[in-house]
Design goal:
The structure is a homodimer of 373-residue chains.
Chain A lengths: L9 E5 H18 L2 E2 L9 H7 L7 E3 L2 H9 L4 E4 L8 H8 L4 E6 L4 H12 L3 E6 L15 H11 L3 E7 L11 H24 L6 E4 L2 H6 L8 E2 L9 H6 L9 E11 L4 E4 L3 H4 L15 E4 L5 E10 L2 E5 L3 H6 L5 E6 L2 H5 L4 E6 L2 E7 L5
Parallel strand pairs in A: 1-16, 2-9, 3-4, 4-5, 5-6, 6-7, 7-8, 8-9
Antiparallel strand pairs in A: 1-10, 10-11, 10-15, 11-14, 12-13, 12-15, 13-14, 16-17
Chain lengths: 373, 373
Amino acid sequence: MNLQDVKTPSLVLDAGRVRRNAARMSERVKRLGVELRPHVKTHKCVEVARIQTEGQRGGVTVSTLGEARAFAARGFRDITYAVPIEPGKFDDAIRLSGACERLALITDDASVPPLLDEAARRAGVRVDLFLKVDCGYHRCGVEPDSPEALQIPRLIADAKGLRFAGILTHAGHSYHARSHGELLEIARQERDVMREFAARLRAEGIEVPTVSVGSTPTTTQVDHLEGVDEARPGNYIFFDAFQATLGSCSFDDCALTVLAAIVHRDRARRKIVIDAGAVALSKDRGAADIDPACGFGRVLDLEGRDLGLRVESLSQEHGALHVEDEAVFDRLTVGTRVRVLANHSCLTAAQHSHYNVLEGERVVDRWEIQRGW
Amino acid sequence: MNLQDVKTPSLVLDAGRVRRNAARMSERVKRLGVELRPHVKTHKCVEVARIQTEGQRGGVTVSTLGEARAFAARGFRDITYAVPIEPGKFDDAIRLSGACERLALITDDASVPPLLDEAARRAGVRVDLFLKVDCGYHRCGVEPDSPEALQIPRLIADAKGLRFAGILTHAGHSYHARSHGELLEIARQERDVMREFAARLRAEGIEVPTVSVGSTPTTTQVDHLEGVDEARPGNYIFFDAFQATLGSCSFDDCALTVLAAIVHRDRARRKIVIDAGAVALSKDRGAADIDPACGFGRVLDLEGRDLGLRVESLSQEHGALHVEDEAVFDRLTVGTRVRVLANHSCLTAAQHSHYNVLEGERVVDRWEIQRGW
């Protein structure tokens, strides 16, 4: 099968680029002397995670218990669910921890350990629980110098139904860095906040089995990771227009595109409409701060060459492009196929049921996406 | 089951409001003297479509061949696929037209009728094909005074494998009307453009079986629909924060919310994080032009009362709120559940696998969402 035979809209995954991105990051974390625990939220796909964890211990990070369930059922034994746990998910999480060797949870709230301890003891299990730390992103996590930063690890360490797994952070603010210098500073901050905090906990007599950090930009840029045990980058496996615009990768590293067909053309308005709309692409604005003309994705031909066009507006099943160049407009007849490099690969992938796996010019496989919660 | 027992994040559908919205629109189109052919893209759900088409002829409009397939398999016999057809979908569409009594397609491109005619004749079927008309929205459709506006109906009428189904438009620009007067003007434009154009086609000897219009705002506001045969509103069945802000409905008419749990709180920053992020809510900006503070949705308590909070930012599985009021902050402990009235119900629904159906305070059923293409 080739790209002319695949339904539109649908995802096209360049397997060669996936393998290359995986090998580079694997090599990188090896040099940094830490374990790789890739975040599978980017792809939600067992086959992709197998490529990422080749030659690694096999641990993964998930963003939903749905991902944890699907990955545990398909042989992944060591999973960290990296969104703070809340009581409504205790039963599911405890059940799931029996379906693999280790499902580690995270918290940053002092109300959680006693309640989770009770639920775990009732179920007759012991649950691994990380303290989520805020290293400067300010989305979730405790500040390392707050009273809770000592109180919560003690609560966990003292609870019979819990095991203190260590400390975990995510420097999500690295996505907003405006220069290489700023990014390097955030990467060092992520590392230094965590190793200083680990030292303080240890000085207080609290054992810290794992210091976990990670984002694609910081793992790629940091100068060393001494004092850190594992990194959890995710986006690097596909990259996207956002990361390429930020300079985290080249456009040739981007592995995921959306195959689309032209359904409408209006020569007077120089307008083309494709069948990839908001549902197929997602409405993520990407790097709009840096590149206000980025729209909702770059339009490539079937061979992956940039046509110099952007998806300018989206409705549910329509994506609109403006095509000033007459020769390009002439080529884009109804039925012609293009590929869209979307702004944010994680959100685009989450809209679809599967990947069409491309090796060279052939579609050789179909890999399922494990959606839902 | 009640809302404390349902997983988060997930969709909650207020069945009473769905029935009320359906009855109002049914009554409205009856008074207007046209058929109702609701657009099921809003919900992609057979049970909801059955409520919408009660007492009607049962025709529906779909936005994907995936919806057409799922609805045909579940007893819907008369389906219009209202995105312009392109050659890559001919085989699927022709196969599907055999699975129901009538699958009508639309086109606005002169290259399509001869190709579709050939495919239909090869398959031994006759395909219903509408001309898509631009009544002022400028997304798709031919201008009624262009040469193609006469050429395409003639091509269709003369083709042995095709049947000219009539003319169809969508006044999507009604969503951007800034006043009731402006909206009424667009609604009249949608009607008048179509009936004048139908008269011209008929004067040219072309039979026009159906004149089809429709959007929720124009169907709700138009003063009469003489000369029109059917209306295809969609969003009215759920409404959403966008439509309520525009004044198309009251906030009490909105039937769809996302159930979410609080996973993080930061008293110093007055920040709360819920487990409904970009995947659960979609990143639609809604009525940001009119209400720049609308964020990504309104936060309600479990009984549906507005807490006066907005989802201010989204990442994949996190939604962040700012909670200035200390008493409200105190109530929102980790594990507390809220409901989010999202900006755009169509895009929010398309993110999920099913609805949890609420009757009063009880969750009484689970209705599947037919995703995919």
